[in-house]
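Readers of this paper often ask what the protein records in our data store actually look like. Such a record has a labelled line for the sequence and another for the backbone structure tokens. Nothing more is needed to write down the fold, since each code stands for a local backbone conformation. The remainder of this section carries one protein's record, kept here as part of the documentation.
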Amino acid sequence: MKFLTEYLTFQIETRRAFVIITPEVKNLVAKSKIKEGLCIVNAMHITASVFINDNEGGLLDDYEKWLEHLAPHKPISQYQHNKTGEDNADAHLKRQVMGREIVVAITNDELDFGPWEEIFYGEFDGKRSKRVLVKIIGE
């Protein structure tokens, strides 16, 4: 069995953002030379997410509004976690909803996606460096 382990690094300048990372992951699949296997992509920080969905601007805006409705950033005092000196309890909750990782099959040297699927990095507490692990295994 072959494998490849790489890390993508993000320094998002805003508090929240959605970034398409499909091209970077596809490049790593090609680099791995794995024809059949699995690609695992996971956020290495508890205030960030990796997920798959449609790259449609209205949908991304809907996510932003929905997540802010579920876990509004302000007032910061509404969260017990923020009493520790943090101000990012909402980011932890948003990450929990959006998920930590994705797994995509590799078939015939390529990510085996359904129609419209793209891989996204979701940032919920930006303005600092964060990593995403990409692990590719197979033959």
